[in-house]
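Subject: sequence -> structure tokens, single chain

Hey, anyone have a minute? Need the predicted structure for the following. Not urgent.
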Amino acid sequence: MDLSYWEIKSWLTNIDFTIVGSGIVGLNCALSLKERFPKANIVILEKGVLPQGASTKNAGFACFGSLGEILDDLKTHTEADVFELVKKRIAGLQLLRQTLGDKTINYQELGGYELFLEEDDLLEQCLSKKGYINKLLQPIFKEDVFSIKPNCFKFQNVKNQYVFNRFEGQIDTGKMMVSLVQLALKKNIKILNNVIVKGFSEDANAVKIKTNQFEFSTHKLLIATNGFASQLLDENVKPARAQVLITKPIKNLHIEGTFHLDKGYYYFRNIDDRILLGGGRHLNFKGEETIEFAQTDLIQNKLETLLKTTILPETSFDIDHRWSGIMGLGSQKKAVVKHVSNHVLCGVRLGGMGVAIGSLVGKELADLISE
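Reply:
Had a minute. Here:
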């Protein structure tokens, strides 16, 4: 790309901090850095026209883990680790709400429900462990989180009891991201779109960044690309595609809240008189371990079947849109927030909990920069 003197001078000279990724982590990192270093020259590089990955693609669940998911996490994490995960998710949600305001992101605490397939024994496990998990989380919430409710939504092919979590909420993902971008621009943080980072090299004082458009130098490079992290970093982060669909508006829609089904591998909610439904990654784990945005017949057909047989069995509906997002997962749920080298840092691997922890991971990444 043939840049002018003005372009180089105004956008790409004397850069203090360059952030790769304009998602929830990257934008919150930039905002935190600007708060600490008001005079800093901050540039965010985004490979998409809009923030790619999961930040603008997610289902808008303001959640911290269903009872079944928490029990599953306890198989691979210690009790202290699981407690810390939930604590950070709650802290991250509170930070997001403080930063933007509940009205701005349309935050609604309508509660969350975990549903159980008829052939699954997970409900029995949840019933037997509910008291134990409520006690574990008592220091965070000061009261019981999980309770049992009867089937009040006329769902079919699921057990007649749900686990209810009154602290779970939902947001408008689009409003969240538009507001974060506007806030960053208002604070003179530059966002350059359609810029793909091809590589970088480091010397004693700076990082030289090579992109598909130009090359430039920055004092610090902060990588916040989550599911795409393996393209730039050698970290334990694997991409995981999540496929989603949304119906056209449904008259007299009686479903309200956020819902988890089949150990959380399926999730759905109400939004604008529609049902948004996503998941099915477990139908083809290896195939969904990709950075390609696409839908597959296998998963989309299963999502439609779930709508017809379980979620909206007595209601006619039409599908309006389908899309996919790319998450970043690993063997552990804890995010990777660290120095990669002297001038390169990263905040990646959000484990499918970007809405909950993204703001906090962004702040933690910024906090790694010493005064």
